Every structure is written in C-alpha cells, then in structure tokens.
Amino acid sequence: MQISSSDQTNRNDAIQYLLIDLDGTCYDIGNKYEDHVRNNLWKYMNTHHGVPVERAEEVWRPLFRKYNQSLRGLRAGGFDIEAEEYWDCLRAGAEKYLFPNAEVRELLKSLPQKEKWLFTNCSEKHAIYALELLNLKDCFTGVIGADMMGDTSKAMGMTTLLITGPTALEEGASTPSALSHCDGIVSTLSEPAVRKALPVLW
Fold it and tell me: What InterPro entries does UniProt report for this protein, alphabetically (predicted)?
C-alpha cells in the first residue's frame, strides 16, 4: 500500500531509509492472494473460535477498522489467539499466489537508499517467506513486522508514496484526509511511475 521514508530539510539527501509495505505493494493485489488470506482467516475463526464462516467477516470487519490489524483487533475483541498458529493458518498457501516480478525488483534495485525495510502488519516469518517467493529478499535490509510492533500497527507518515487499490481503500488510506498526507500517488509499483510521482527518492 505505501512506501514511507525519513524526511529532512535538505531535500538533496533527505531520504535515507525506505519503509515498504508488503501486501498490495510488493505484489499486485489483483493476484487474489489477499482474498486467499481472508478466506483462511474465516476458516481460522471457525475452526479455532467457533465463529460460523458466514459470520466471520461481520465479526472481523469492525475490529479491523478500529485497530488496523486483524490479530490486534481480534485479541481486543476477546479472542484468545496464539500468534504463531494464527499466522501459520492465515498465510498458508502463499506459494500458489506469489511469484517473482522483474519490474518491482528493478525498481527496488534502482533506489539509491542503502537501507530498505519491509514494513508490514504480517509476521516477520511469513513476510520473509513472501519475499523469497517474490525474489525480493535481497532487496531489503530486513523486516519490521507484527512480532516487532506488538500492539502497534503501521500507519501512514513521513514522506509517503501511496499505491492505490483495494487494500489502501480498506485501510482508510484513500480518504481525502489520508490522501492529503501523501507526497505521491501511483496505481502500480514500477520505476517509471514512481520516478514521476516521487522523483526525490533518487
């Protein structure tokens, strides 16, 4: 959904670090992986917590909207969740949906910043596996994920490039208020598009 960076007054060397989202950014959200993860969530809520599959989204959505992260929201809603088991269930089957994308890799390699961190609400273990499937692991310094953030969830801030799409809309990043905080907006993660929207990255 977003790429954020450190910001300083001197724009010539202002952007030193990049925080890059995983879902809907490092891969095309249209590949149905997000739908697959959601279906896994409905099944998890059913098998582990007795929520009927047909009611799972109804229970989940207001918690997600309030807390901007499913695990955090469900725990706040009274669900007793073991994190590793939860993530293993949610992210199972990633290899059926995530494949290398040369265009995204070329973009990441072209960016001059020495440190590029994957910044995601996903667990570090499964985020790293996703990067391996996407052939992007060597493009990143490391991963800042759900395990490290604990009860905190990512949000827009700093210098922000928004990749539009269903994920951005669902997380509230496409509202007029949120868009006003974006320094650039693109519909696809490619070097030409990003150079045009936010040339200061180079």
Answer: HAD-like_sf (IPR036412), HAD_sf (IPR023214)
108 and 144 share one domain: yes
Question: Nearest 5°: phi and psi at 196?
Answer: -70, -40
Residue type, 98: L
Domain count, the chain: 2
Amino acid identity at 164? T
Question: Token match 């907006």: residue?
Answer: 185
161 with 196, same domain: the answer is yes
Asked if residue 164 and residue 87 are part of one domain, the reply reads: no
- Smallest CA-to-CA distance from 98 within 134, 69, 127, 70 is with 134
Give yes or no: residues 112 and 196 share one domain.
yes
**87 and 9 assigned to the same domain:** no
| Mean pLDDT computed over 120-130 | 94
Here the contacts of 69-76 (C-beta below 8 Å, separation 24 or greater) are 69/121, 69/146, 69/153, 70/41, 70/121, 71/146, 72/151, 72/153, 74/45
**C-beta of residue 95 within 8 angstroms of C-beta of residue 133:** yes
The domain boundary, picked from 49, 67, 94, lies at 94
> 153 with 171, same domain?
yes
pLDDT value for 9: 43
Q: Model pTM greater than 0.85? A: no
